[in-house]
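Budget justification aside, the reviewers requested a transparent look at the raw inputs and outputs of the sequence design task funded under Objective 1. We therefore reproduce one unedited record. The lines immediately below are the structure tokens for a 332-residue chain.
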């Protein structure tokens, strides 16, 4: 797996958060403490394989710690690290998120307007140091990224706006023609990150039911994913191995065009994938469909085919004699 852009942004803020209530700490203590604050499970902390989430985060945390020391947010004294305390205000991510959400309940604001409000609200603008402003803006940027990525907030004409649309509950069984549009509306409201994980789990279940052994299935999405959102490695009964690269697009109405498909196919080839799957909640433009049909190692899954795959695997939905409902264990 790869460390996503969102995780990288969180590392620096967690390093600062770890040191807030400590006089000083060793490099190992800071790195381990920051990783714990990111919420890794005990099983993940014990996985010491080079490509594990723990090892990758540990490696990046070391780099982030060096950067914070260079920017003089953190002071290094021998083998100990501490926050620069003089006129330095540190605010936790939870408090920053609460204030951003409160602000957006009252209106829409640009990123700079949000930063300015936070600096005045928490008082970092009144200190002589600019380091606490940097720390505050770094954490606030991470919060805005997460709120936007999870579809709680949207950007309209350069301003962050709280999304007013409320997810429709579909706990009452509905016939397929009524349930299907509500299913896709729920997927769209959940946002891109949820959809990446949903597709990864869906494909893993599909290949398992098809008699393939899934060696691993990882979400690699983020701004630095290289055009690949999900990677699967599967082995068939005879032992042949395939590495499948997946791109996902969780959209409300817009079609996937040929340029987008070609870019994904190029990324798949560059990363030595044996096959590629492009998954969208909508449809492919006819020119994109023609390109997909022209190559043997690429498959397009549009909204209709995606829903058929969901029904086939029974992943994400529950079928009853009265119709379909969402599987709330997956969607909540």
């Amino acid at each position: 797996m790869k460390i996503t852009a969102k995780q990288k942004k969180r590392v620096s803020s967690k390093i600062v958060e770890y040191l807030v209530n400590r006089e000083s700490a060793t490099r190992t203590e800071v790195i381990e403490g920051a990783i714990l604050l990111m919420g890794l499970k005990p099983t993940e902390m014990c996985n010491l394989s080079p490509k594990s989430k723990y090892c990758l985060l540990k490696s990046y945390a070391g780099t982030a710690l060096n950067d914070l020391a260079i920017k003089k947010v953190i002071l290094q004294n021998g083998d100990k690290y501490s926050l620069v305390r003089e006129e330095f205000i540190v605010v936790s991510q939870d408090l920053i998120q609460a204030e951003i959400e409160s602000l957006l309940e009252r209106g829409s604001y640009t990123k700079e307007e949000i930063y300015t409000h936070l600096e005045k609200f928490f008082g970092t603008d009144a200190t002589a140091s600019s380091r606490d402003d940097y720390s505050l803006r770094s954490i606030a940027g991470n919060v805005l990224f997460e709120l936007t990525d999870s579809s709680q907030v949207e950007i309209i004409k350069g301003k962050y706006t709280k999304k007013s649309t409320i997810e429709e509950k579909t706990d009452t069984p509905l016939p397929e023609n009524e349930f299907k549009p509500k299913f896709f509306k729920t997927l769209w409201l959940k946002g891109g990150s949820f959809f990446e994980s949903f597709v990864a789990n869906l494909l893993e279940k599909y290949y398992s039911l098809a008699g393939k052994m899934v060696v691993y299935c990882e979400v690699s999405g983020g701004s630095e994913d290289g055009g690949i959102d999900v990677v699967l490695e599967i082995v068939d009964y005879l032992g042949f191995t395939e590495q499948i690269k997946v791109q996902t697009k969780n959209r409300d109405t817009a079609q996937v065009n040929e340029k987008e498909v070609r870019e994904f196919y190029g990324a798949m080839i560059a990363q030595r994938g044996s096959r590629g799957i492009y998954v969208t909640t909508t449809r492919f433009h006819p020119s994109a469909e023609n390109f997909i049909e022209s190559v043997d190692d690429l498959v397009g899954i549009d909204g209709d085919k995606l829903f058929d795959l969901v029904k086939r695997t029974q992943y994400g939905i529950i079928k009853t004699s009265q119709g379909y409902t969402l599987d709330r264990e997956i969607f909540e």
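The radius of gyration is 23 Å. The mean pLDDT is 86. Computational costs for records of this kind are itemized in the attached budget.
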